From TrEMBL:
The gene is ESK1. This is Xylan O-acetyltransferase 1. It comes from Salvia divinorum (Maria pastora). The lineage of its organism: Eukaryota, Viridiplantae, Streptophyta, Embryophyta, Tracheophyta. Belongs to the PC-esterase family. TBL subfamily. Pfam families: PC-Esterase. Residues 15-303 form the Trichome birefringence-like C-terminal domain. It comes from the Eukaryota.
Length: 309
């Protein structure tokens, strides 16, 4: 239970304490939408839990759907939503319940099919990272996803990612009224799959890790591809779009103890005892426990939102 004592302290400043009532007032009559993959859904779920502390019993409902899930708060006429788009652009993985892991194919210049659902949001929170990390290359479609056999090129990760970020930035530039809508991009969420990365070669991935990495001077290498962060930062600067970059990467890398590990779901069911006994195969060292690290991400997001005039 020690996780309850950990709180991230930024250098040279203090984050304001999360106050659900203050944020709910900021959201009155508005839509806060998270767009991205299951890690972004993890952050959306965290936000729903945090806001619950300020909502009267029975005055909120939620509908989990595909690709859109909505948490509605009646007394504030507000919604907190999650839209599944793991690559932001169109792909053969756009069905959150039925998609390909080994044969992911993207359409890096096609975003309007998703974007039409984002236009009316007042706060947009984007991410895309973990689905890019299976291989050094990714399949880029030449034709249409409706074709019986897909014709594609194998493109280097960074090259394809830059194309997607350019498409995303262009969409924001031409489809969002930035005086009314605030946009944010959450940086890459790290994984803790190799215990040798924190000098524990005999560990079982993130399983049985109960404390953070305490040595904050230790050089971290969790396999995070920070080149993608540079691409996002450079694209925002080059296009001149008003997007706040919320960097959650390094602070999350220290939290090897904070993943769902063997206390996770597979196909909607908790792991069986024999599966829990085999963490190397079944531990989830990608998603995060709640309460936990995504609450810190939302404290950062909260600070951005309440600071807006």
């Amino acid at each position: 239970m020690m996780y309850q004592n950990w709180r991230w302290q930024p250098n040279e400043c203090s984050l304001p304490k999360f106050d659900a009532k203050i944020l709910l007032e900021k959201l009155r009559g508005k839509r806060l939408m998270f767009v991205g993959d299951s890690v972004n859904r993890n952050q959306w779920e965290s936000m729903v839990c945090l806001l619950h502390t300020g909502i009267a019993p029975g005055r909120a409902t939620w509908t989990v759907g595909a690709p859109l899930s909505v948490f509605s708060i009646q007394d504030y006429n507000a919604t907190v939503e999650f839209y599944w788009a793991p690559f932001l652009v169109q792909s053969n993985s756009d069905d959150p319940r039925n998609h390909s892991i080994s044969q992911r194919i993207i359409m890096p210049e096609s975003i309007s099919k998703h974007g039409i659902h984002w236009k009316a949001a007042d706060f947009l929170v984007f991410n895309t990272y973990i689905w890019w990390m299976n291989n050094q290359t990714i399949k880029v479609l030449r034709g249409s996803l409706d074709q019986e056999t897909a014709d594609y090129d194998e493109v280097q990760r960074c090259t394809a990612y830059e194309r997607v970020m350019t498409t995303w930035a262009d969409w924001l530039m031409h489809n969002v009224n930035h005086t009314q809508t605030a946009s944010y991009f959450i940086t890459m969420s790290p994984v803790h799959w190799q215990s040798s990365n924190w000098n524990n070669p005999d560990g079982a991935v993130c399983a049985r890790e109960t404390t953070p990495i305490m040595n904050t001077t230790m050089e971290l290498d969790m396999g995070t591809d920070r080149r993608l962060l540079d691409i996002v930062r450079n694209t925002i600067k080059k296009k001149g779009i008003p997007v706040d970059l919320i960097d959650i990467t390094t602070l999350s890398e220290y939290r090897k103890d904070a993943h769902t590990s063997v206390y996770t779901l597979r196909q909607g069911k908790l792991l069986l005892p024999e599966q829990k006994a085999n963490p190397a195969s079944f531990a989830d060292c990608l998603h995060w426990c709640l309460p936990g690290v995504p609450d810190t991400w939302n404290e950062l997001l909260y600070t951005h939102i309440i600071s807006r005039s």
